[in-house]
Amino acid sequence: MTKLYIPVLQVKVLALTDHDTMAGIPEAMSAAHKFGMRIIPGVEISALYSPREIAGAGEPVHILAYYGMCGPSRFDELERMLSDIRDGRYLRARNMLAKLNRLKVPIKWEHVTKIAGEGVAPGRLHIARAMVELGHVENVRQAFNKYIGDDGPAYATGSEPFAETVVQLISRTGGISALAHPWALKNPHAVIRALKCAGLNAMEVYRSDGKVDGFSELAEKYGFLKIGGSDFHGRGGKDESDIGTVKLAITTLCCFLKMARPIWCSAMKDILLKFAEEPSAANLGKIVKFGELINFDGFSSMDAGVDIVNLCLCSWLSNDGMEEVELEEVRLKLAHCVGKT
């Protein structure tokens, strides 16, 4: 999981998009709040592009999902997909180790899981680090190029969903979807066309070295918002860009927020309307899991005169942001529910 090295870099806004998990978002938000930073909750979802939708076959594609401060509107649905992917990562890692062993590159499972950390589904980066530590390769890049890259002899697939399915789920759960590092794709044109039809919002174009020939034009051709990121994994070294090294113009951020705000506001409505169907202190705690930490112990019943909408908005938004959100429909429904209890 990505660790934050925030104060030194003076980053003001950071999108945390760990691979196939949002488990680190609450901790990141808590840490960032101390330094006056804003965290955009996100996740990088492993997927496959297959023109004929053949399970287990196709080109690996990474789809970024960016959510508002309230997080996904249907978190359980998203988490089921992410959980299935993580389960598949365990099987995939074991298959890779088996292939490496056959290639006379022995690595123990315990070594990889120790590098990954407790509760973290091991990925290729963890296997690559183990290979470096054991002296099988000189660096992580060599591990990918020689053994575990997409065309490598030790590569294996997991249980990744189809890329179009991922984009559609992000849309249903109130997120902005973006294609990550399209320059790594073998067939970017076909992937981009398919994801456009599925509802993709954006595409990474900017990176630290600026070498993105052709992808800016592709983004314009398909009407995608052009974004960028460091793809920082916390491993350090010269092969990885540091946080904040991709300089995005303020106009890029403004365009992103202009697109995102109505989608995120709609997600807020969905979350609060769903809460209105079953208002309780326990459910209140669940729906603000990505917001600022608030103690709900005192709210034993919903007829205690608590303005639930304002409470949630205080957790999710700044004072200025609260004024922009119109949730009268939600207030009325919650008032009706409370009045019946």
Could you estimate the helical fraction of the residues in percent? Answer: 40-55%
Order of helices and strands: HEHEEHHHHHEHEHEHHHHH
Low-confidence stretches: 1-8
Number of helices: 14
**Radius of gyration computed on alpha carbons:** 21 Å
Task: Decide which structural class fits the backbone.
Answer: alpha/beta
What is the β-strand count? 6
Shape, principal axes of CA atoms:
globular
CATH fold assignment of the largest domain: TIM Barrel
Q: N-to-C terminal Cα separation, in Å?
A: 43 Å
Largest sheet: 6 strands, mixed
CATH H-level superfamily title of the largest domain: Metal-dependent hydrolases
Q: Assign the CATH class of the largest domain.
A: Alpha Beta
Mean pLDDT: 82
Number of domains: 3
DSSP strand (E) fraction? 5-15%
Give the strand order, joined by hyphens, for the main sheet.
1-2-3-4-5-6
CATH architecture of the largest domain: Alpha-Beta Barrel
